[in-house]
Amino acid sequence: MAVPDWPPLAIVIVTYSSGEVVEGCLRSLDAALAGAGPARVVVVDNASADDTVERVRRVAPEAEVIQTGRNAGFAAGVNAGIAAADGCDVLVLNPDIRLTPGSVLLLRQALALPGTGIAAPRLTGETGRLHLSLRRRPTVPRALGEALLGGHTAGRIPALGELVVDPAAYGRPQTADWVSGAAWMVSRACLDALDPLDERYFLYSEETEYMLRAGEAGFAVRYEPRAVAVHLGGEQSTSSRLWALSSANRVRMHRERYGRPRGQLMRLAVGLNELVRAVARGGAGGRRHRAALRQLVPLREWPLLPDEEGASATASLTRDGSSPAEKAPSPGYVCFSAQDWWYHNRAHSDFQLMRSVAAHRKVLVVNSIGMRMPMLGRSTQVLRRVGRKLRSVAMLVRRPLRELPGFYVMSPLPLPFYGSPLARRVNALLVRAQVLAVSRALGLHRPVIMVTIPTAWDVVRPMRRRALVFNRSDRHSSFPESDRPTIEALERGLLESSDHVVYVSTALMGEESGVTGDRAHFLDHGVDTDHFRRRPESEQPADLRAIPGPRVGFFGALDDYLVDFDLLERIAVELPGVSLVLIGDATVPMERLTRHPNVHWLGFRPYERIPAYGSGFDVAIMPWLDNPWIRNSNPIKLKEYLALGLPVVSTDFQELANYADRVRIAADGGLFVEAVRATLRDGGLQPADTMRGSVLGASWSSRAARLMALAELPPGPR
Asked: Which candidate in 236, 305, 411, 714 could, as Cys together with 392 as Cys, close a disulfide (CB 3.0–4.6 Å)?
């Protein structure tokens, strides 16, 4: 039987000292996969103290083993496995799960049903006894019902119980608010659309929170009883520490989702439940409930991890009740950007990635240190460029985003004379001293360092770091004003020495694979779909609404090494009844275009206003030059246009191959003008909703999660 055209499948198993149980899990996979096609097996080991890794390699030599070197909890392990399984649907398993034959195919069929994002099997014990795994959304009334009536009695009344207790319910397929997280399959679309599992919980409630988010995003959680998984676990019911952590995390999740007042109500309800059970059972029988009360009164903000309190009771837990190894503190990040926060478009990938990382880690963005000093006769707008850099340096160190208190931006004073070896050394010392001083002040003593601009290699080479990531977003040696041999040598140093090299261009990644090997990773651009949404005409800017339609538009930097100005002028001349709207800073005089009455150059507009302008375009264009810079590019603008539901016409470059069903691609100027005409006539290749829907899963937070998973793993052998 042919396997349907589903995404590839990865099976992620998170282990910690799981040697006694993981072999059985791995041995069950062959029969479980019958009819479902092959699957990658990814075992994420959280610093096991036993021979777990050796057993995995002996029983399943084809499995990919990720050794994290720490134990940050179950969610962190799952996130690391998901990050390693880019493009795959993912089946998450506890190591004490045994899948029954054919169960994976049944889960994949359930996952393929419209609107489904998560599929889960029936869980049983070794004797075949049903495990109650279906759950309703947690609420304060349900927590009170369980406190006063008991979980099983309250579960018979949907409004008063979270646990589904009716045995008949477990015999039919259905959707659920959430299910037990011992075995669950997640679609690639769901993974791409949501932020990763929340690692702050350490253990318990992380799967609850994720599944509730999935449902709220339109991805159903589907239960498939024909797929059966045998679960050997149950340590939560016998371990006081696990029970206490589970109870406390129920409260933390309610607080995070609904605010502190409702979190306090949930705390009272859960506390009442534990108090009633502690009194009723007394002695040894009430031990776990007394442990829960000790965690609830008082309740810590988040569970302590090993780096915070040695081998504390909370920190010494794993999902199966064992004690973890010491966990290294979560690192901060220092990013040497190719842009300047204070005057470039903040949609650039290094800014977007670091903003998303800053939701979880402390981040210092170092504004661009340039690739050469602007010079008269060689550079455009020299005085303006020098002036804006000096104004940026005067900003010193700031926290520009109130909602991200851990996100810092600094502008060091550089001396960008990269053609002279002596000047390069002096500049590197000067910039490094400034960055180190700020890093120490912020407590960033051994950060992950991400480099986007190659001239930072001289600066970071001797710096202490957790890992070095080269964000290979462009081939900077192709920049027209660069000292090509110097920049190529700096790029080569980064390619050879970085722990990870992340690419947005498969073409460039392929060209450099001989240098990077398995350290290269494709990390596609994301898009802020909440920001880039279509605005009604009433919300579009007045200066745009004053321009007659139809409007053919472009937003972004109007740089002479990127944009084909001859093509723009040809559009203006050959389509005189069309308004050509250009939004962005320009590095060249614009009179050659603005002399045409149908060309409207609006200049720079802030990032916050760009979607409102783009919403007024009838056709969005990408009129790129054909040069090495563009051929190895992957413009963020493309996803932003699509998120706005705009029809797009573009000149050709390799990464467009994946968008041929949505973008009209023109090989020359004449064909480009004809493609614009056709698009104005028929509205584009796909409806606006289809265009937008095609990029809804491409969140920056999902890209940042993969970046963090790569950067925070111990480096592999070189």
From this structure: 411
Phi, psi angle pair for 8, to nearest 5°: -60, 160
**pTM over 0.70, yes/no:** no
What pLDDT was estimated at residue 140? 94
- CB of 11 within 8 A of CB of 289? no
Give 663 or 418, the one with higher predicted confidence: 663
Q: What is the distance between the alpha carbons of residues 505 and 650, in angstroms, rounded to a whole number?
A: 17
**How far is the C-alpha of 417 from the C-alpha of 423, rounded, in Å?**
6
Distance, in Å, from the CA atom of 409 to the CA atom of 342, rounded to the nearest integer, reads 9
**462 DSSP assignment:** T
Q: How confident is the model at residue 322 (pLDDT cuts 50, 70, 90)?
A: very low
Residue 675 to residue 169: CA distance in whole angstroms: 56
Q: What is the pLDDT of residue 585?
A: 87
Beta-carbon neighbour count of residue 172 at 10 Å?
9
**Closest by CA position to 633, among listed 470, 478, 430:** 478
Strand partners, 492: none
Q: How much is the average pLDDT of 124-151? A: 92
CA distance 674 to 536: 28
Q: What does the DSSP 8-state code read for residue 536?
A: P
Inter-CA distances, 268 with 248, 271, 291, 299, 535, Å = 11, 5, 16, 11, 44
Cβ neighbours of 102 (radius 10 Å): 17
User: In this predicted model, what pLDDT tens digit does every residue of 527-552 receive, in sequence order?
Assistant: 888 889 999 999 999 999 999 999 99
Closest CA to 16 of 37, 56, 47, 39: 47
Of all residues in the chain, what percent are helix, strand and coil, respectively (each to 5)? 40, 15, 40
From the CA atom positions of the chain, what is the Rg in Å? 28
Residue with tokens 């051994």: 446
Determine the average pLDDT of the residues in 470-475.
Answer: 84
Q: Are 393 and 412 in contact (CB under 8 A)?
A: yes
Quickly tell me which residue has 């502008």 as its tokens: 411
Beta pairing, strands 89-93 & 183-186: antiparallel
CA separation for the pair 287, 110 (Å, rounded): 41
What's residue 73's pLDDT?
A: 81
Q: 258-276 burial by CB neighbour count: b if 16+ within 10 A, else e?
A: eeeeebebbbbbbbebbbe
37: left (phi over 0), alpha (psi -120 to 50) or beta: left
The H-assigned helical ranges of 443-564 are 457-460, 484-497, 506-511, 513-516, 542-545
Cα angle at 492 between 487 and 495, to 5 degrees?
Answer: 125
Q: Which of 506, 369, 354, 514 is nearest to 432 (CA)?
A: 369
Greatest CA separation for the chain: 89
Q: How far apart are CA 204 and CA 318, in angstroms?
A: 10
**How far is residue 661's CA from residue 643's CA, in Å, rounded to a whole number?**
15
* Cis peptide upstream of residue 447 (ω within 30 degrees of 0): no
